[in-house]
Design a protein that fits this description.
The complex is a heterotrimer. In chain A, strand 5 and strand 6 form a beta hairpin. Chain A is mostly helical. Chain A has a two-stranded antiparallel ribbon. In chain A, strands 3-4 form a two-stranded antiparallel sheet. Chain B has one domain. Chain B has 19 helices and 2 strands. In chain B, a hairpin with a 4-residue loop joins strand 1 and strand 2. By secondary structure, chain C is mostly helical. Among the domains of chain C are: 32 residues; 64 residues, NADH:ubiquinone/plastoquinone oxidoreductase, chain 3 (Methane Monooxygenase Hydroxylase, Chain G, domain 1), CATH 1.20.58. In chain C, 56% of the residues lie in helices and 0% in strands. In chain C, helix 4 packs antiparallel against helix 5. The two termini of chain C are 50 Å apart. The N terminus of chain C is likely disordered. Classes of the chains: A mainly alpha, B mainly alpha, C mainly alpha.
Chain lengths: 492, 516, 159
Amino acid sequence: MSPPLFGPDILRALLPFIVVAVGATLTTLLGAWRTRLGLAAAVAVLAVAVLALRGAPESVRAWEGALVLDRFSLVFMALLLGAAFFTLFLSEPVLRREGRVRAEYYGLLLFSLSGMFLLVSTTNLLMIFLALELLSIPLYVLCGYAREDDRSIEAAMKYFVLGSFSSAIFLFGAALLFGATGTIDLAAMHGGDRLLGAAGVLLLLVGFFFKAAAVPFHMWAPDVYDGAPTPIASFMATAVKIATFGLLLRVLSFAFAAEAHPAAAFLDREAAEPALRWIAILTMSVGNLSALTQNNVKRMLAYSSIAHAGYLFLGLIPGSGAVDGAGVTYYLVAYLFMTSGAFAVIAALSAREGGREVLTVDRFAGVGYRRPFLGLAMTIFLVSLAGIPPTAGFFGKYLLFRGAIDRGLTGLVVIAVLNSALSLYYYLRVVVFFYMKETDRPAAIDDALGFRLAMIAALAGVLWIGFMPDLFGLPGIPSLLGWVQASVSSLP
Amino acid sequence: MGGILTTLIFLPLAGMLLLAFVPGSNARAVRLVTLLVTVVLFLVSVPLAWEFEGTGGMEFEERAPWVPAFGISYHVGIDGISLFLLLLTTFLAPLVYLSAWNAITSRVKEFALFYLLLHTGMIGAFVALDLFLFYVFWELMLVPMAFLIGVWGGERRIYAAVKFVLYTVVGSLLMLAALLVLARHAAEASGSLSFDWADLVGTPVPRTLQMLLFGAFALAFAIKVPLFPFHTWLPDAHVEAPTAGSAILAGILLKMGTYGFLRYAMPLFPEAAQAAAPLLAFLALVGIVYGALVAMVQDDVKKLVAYSSVSHLGFVVLGLFAFNTSGIQGAIYVMLAHGLSTSALFLLVGVMYERRHTRLISEYGGLARPMPLFAAFFLVTTLASIGLPALCGFVGEFLVLFGTFRVHPGRAAIAATGVVLGAVYMLWMFRRVFFGPITADANRNLRDLSLREIVVLVPLLVGMVVLGVRPMPLLDRMEKAVERHIEMMRGDARAEAETPEIRFVAEAVDSMEEAR
Amino acid sequence: MRAARFLGAPVGRVRPAAEGFSRKRSGARPGPLPFVSSCGDRMNGYAPLILVVVLALITPAMLLVVSSLLGAKRTERTKGEPYECGIPQPAPPRRAVPVKYYLVAVLFLLFDVEAVFLYPWAVVYRRLGLFGFVEMAVFLAMLVAGLVYVWKRGALEWD
């Protein structure tokens, strides 16, 4: 008895995607008539999407895993919506400052968001490919949105070329897996031909790792983050990471599921674990070591986001247990707030001089005194990124590290801990310039409302989680940890 | 309204909130408010001294769930060990702030904010009984101290601040990892995750694991102490920090390391502590002698005092790893005495610096003539620092040597040379600064101590004398707690009553006083 | 049902025809897939394929190497020109083409692909029923929205 092809439940499950996708189309269309209304339209679309998400059913699985709506996807969609809201806050002031307000920008952003929504709610390889493309193509355009800036164009080109390669690699992997197992639904895969399957998985993961900017597939990230407009860099650092890790979590939890699950045969633990370990170690170490030498704060944040991906990989290694979905998700919540906040500060400081953004750290000297709130906020975001209590980043790391230690990965945790100590150096450097140095060419500071709102929201999140790591007190999320744990309960 | 301890922790935070409403341009108002907050802080803590019973267990305990899902609770309390360190902290708070009244002229409000935040961290770290809570407060101290050094410090302040942070963080993050491993180990035994000190202390840990975990904890604390090879951040931090920062750093922050050894590293991992004792005692001895020798050749007064700290804290570590009552009581006593005398020394050096803007010994000479009062204060503090009987330094050093001698005479002998060397470098420095002809004309008409400076220094001096002549009330209150700790550290309960000796020492001191 | 099929129902296994391969398959459930492993006799099934690939690589490589070793090398100006036919080149070969042509090409591709998609849909239209109709309507609506946008923004104007 096959499940129904369509029904009210499926429709309700589809509603968030429909809302965002149709909203994206309409917002783009707005560009032809009233292009200044883009922000209003995007906010309206996201608001409706929130409603749609609240009304969505909690367990729908349709069309051979092409649509899988469970607690997990709902939680990740909520996180993605949060990231999108942060990006909207940052976008309007930056666009206005540079005279580029256009509704198409918001339309593209929403298209990308709809791709991410899809990405976290499917187990079907074809659908994953579609979602990846839907996520990436608007981003290629958005990276080059600052058309007069060579570096923006370069970012777009680089991201496009390498992104297409990674998509192709993913697609090739998907084809091999299909050849090996005869199905494109990850949840239904049984062991098939070993060689084909192994090659398929390998290529598949390479595609994902590229999107997650894991070492050695991270080369594009600093250039792209640096060149892209700051709100877009923020979007890539938060939303794309969240979506990719959502997908990785889902895929790997199938792959590493207990032997009873048919999908267990899909990946060999003995071979995959060491590989993942090395990727985790390399990603965090290369990210941190490269960040050490950066003078450009945006590049520094790009490398730091690579390093954070490395910490997140800790949660993806099963060790003696299973994939630590709760730890990864919790970290992503903390990461969303602190990274969005840091990018909001950068956006406020990234006025263009002669067509180029000036983001070298020495220009930020004394900012902490010129704008006390901004300085305080940045200090707290950076302290949180470094994982010093009492901030969200600390508890995120705490949970990830504790989970890893529980699974017997103490060595990895020690490396991660040393990496955190390393990271403090370059985060501190920004604070040192903010408060302890002086310059005769101070950076211009943009006091737009959007930046301030984003900073306040991010600061509230970072400190609230820092002081009340469990009690969240939001309607529907009484306990953050409980929320996160419930979300991963729907994974195998 | 919670208990006294909670009030103490959150009072500085409330003060910060209050300060937020004071305009930063009105420096005088900011200073007054901050002083008021710190005075209130001290006054609130005073009743602890009387109401404390000295049962050996935790008193004034408060417990509240913080993050039950993570096994973290808000659990605070004090015993005879932390009581005095806590009182020292609150005692120094208003005095040190008052000393910086005129020295800090830029960004007065920010200074006050960081100063108060630092106190929340220090008080919290001393009273926390949940390891996780301790860790949070421990890290909380880091940021404000880094700012105090980095913003208001000397020429190489940024280098010093960054060095301070990195040294501390490397140690403390490893401690965090060890903490997580320990908690997991305990959770496997008891079935529920808990970071509570009392729960963890009772958990037996296999020997190899103990060694690893003790290593991580010991590294974090050794850096903070600082023990010999990890001490290099200290001279930089001390020299570059503003006077108030140095005083707090020497007075309180360094004690955090030795307190950590006593409260956490040793009782949690008794076997490992026993096994590592020779190594740590050796490092402590190296620190004592090396610190003293290096101090001797310094031409900068502040650096000299900084290296003397390395030497003094060597005594503390040595006393701790004697594993007997006199050794540990002596160690705590040295911590207190050092807290008073060294922070007073830093303040006095600050007085000199404010007048002449140099700390080079060669720039001074004959200072006793224009500044007789200052010289007198300096002399008493110097004598206290080198451990003259009837002043605070003596009791602690004596007990440490005594305790060490009982288990290891050789160590005591080497340490005793540190006492001698201490007298040499301190007195030599004193002679060069205060006696002889006045070589620099600028020194001829220096102002003597102002009323504010006297107000700051008198309580410290009184403290040094009281600690020197009336050690018994303090030692009595410590005794039970120390014995309990020793029991925890010695699985075989070899703890014998060592009170007679202590009585003997204390009575000797008392009679000496009477004879005078 | 058909739509479900399309998205990845069992479409029949794609297997190499080699003997040993399918024999192995019919046995017990195979173990986990390694990233890289020695696949033993299974490799036999791929041996001809690998041979072809190797030959395909070697042959042109050999031709290139041999001709570069044995061939005469004369470099003249005329030889460097794109068309070595004796007639002087009238203009630089890489001339800028108006961007509008690209636009036309893109639009053509877009609507062409749409048409390609419509054919198979039309073939199975009856079996898909209302569901298929709605789906195609949505698809076309999207395209129309795109067309309207492009039109309105003036991308279809030649001048």
